[in-house]
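We emphasize that the prediction below concerns an isolated chain of 52 residues; any contacts that depend on oligomerization or on bound cofactors are therefore not represented. The input was used exactly as deposited, without trimming of termini.
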Amino acid sequence: MDKYYSINEVAKMLKVAYLTVYRWIQTGRLKSDKAGRQYRINKQDLDKFIKT
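Result of the prediction step, given as a token string:
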């Protein structure tokens, strides 16, 4: 089972603003899935993003 994070959770983990994470998603830098009106970031995708 994959672990998913919300934009708020990712922002807190990386110590950046909510809007920064949102912009990364919008520009394609950070891969995410959209569930209804909410974005969910897969743990594996977040780990890849952090490494690059």
